[in-house]
Design brief:
The protein has 162 residues and is an all-alpha fold. 77% of the residues lie in helices and 0% in strands. The longest helix is centred in the C-terminal third of the chain and has 37 residues, at 117-153. The protein is elongated, with a radius of gyration of 19 Å.
């Protein structure tokens, strides 16, 4: 016997997906603003410290929602739908790679008080690499989300007790 009815699980999944997309949109907006600022040759990158720290916090929140909400059932082995398990086996290693890039970026830039000039000088390059990884992650997430939503909307076969 399952602890939650299929309708409850579907509602929870939709809520988690909505939360993930909201976080993702926030990260993308902040990423765009940060990238725009760092591309301006007149910008003293040391003045981006507050924006950078805020971006790092949003980035970590976004990554956490994916792993602790959306992918948790896969990683715990609790997903029963074959379609989702097969897709996850194919894309999770690459999603995990994007997480590692985001964590490395965060580890470098989340506390700007100790950054040296070289770290600030490298910010545009690191942001570009992070942007590529975020684009990859979003593509993979969208495939996963669409598969979750499609398989969640199908009625589940249940056994009827005598």
């Amino acid at each position: 016997m399952h602890s939650q009815a299929p309708n409850e699980r579907r509602a929870r999944t939709r809520k988690e997906i909505k939360q993930l997309i909201e976080e993702r949109n926030s990260v993308l907006a902040q990423y765009y603003n940060l990238a725009k600022i760092t591309e301006d040759p007149e910008t003293d990158l040391h003045n981006t410290a507050d924006i950078l720290e805020e971006f790092c916090q949003e980035l970590v929140d976004y990554m956490a929602i994916g792993h602790f909400e959306i992918y948790r059932r896969i990683e715990d082995g609790n997903e029963r739908r074959d379609e989702i398990v097969k897709l996850a086996e194919k894309i999770m290693p690459r999603i995990n790679d994007t997480t590692q890039v985001a964590i490395a970026f965060n580890d470098l830039y989340d506390d700007t008080s100790n950054l040296d000039d070289d770290a600030f000088d490298q910010l545009p390059n690191y942001l570009a690499k992070l942007g590529e990884e975020l684009a990859t992650r979003i593509d993979l997430e969208d495939k996963f989300i669409n598969t979750l939503l499609v398989t969640s909307s199908r009625p589940e076969l249940t056994s009827v007790g005598a």
